[in-house]
Known about the structure:
Elements lengths: L1 E4 L4 E7 L6 E9 L10 E7 L5 E6 L3 E5 L6 E6 L5 E7 L5 E6 L6 H6 L6 E4 L15
Antiparallel strand pairs: 1-2, 2-3, 4-5, 5-6, 6-7, 8-9, 9-10
Amino acid sequence: MYYIDSIPRKVYAFDYDKETGATSNQQIVVDFDMTTEKEEVFPDGMCIDEEGMLWVACYYGAKVVRFNPISGKKLFEVKIPALRTTSCCWGGPNYDELYVTCAVSGASDDELMEYPLTGSVFKVTGLGIKGLPPTVYDG
């Protein structure tokens, strides 16, 4: 199980017990202070692809970054034409479309001029990577 804590700029992994719902063994898998993401960007929402890699929306970063959760290394990034990227998820019939949400709240007039699509939802195609189907909660 993964969890993002935006203010300290870290992504954590936990062991998860399906029977009890208990978490244990917290580990930092991505530390934005130790990556190439040293500028003032904050990890926000994320999703996982079929290879087990993490896709992290970078608030104030205008991008989504793919990370290897084993090494913590950045694999590549997808630029988004909105500064405040908030989350991402896989969709489409084959789960090969990455949907990215962006916030508009707090954007200045200058930011809206530079990023006129602020607040939009974007569909990224052609990545050559698929996501996982959603997990349905049964109760």
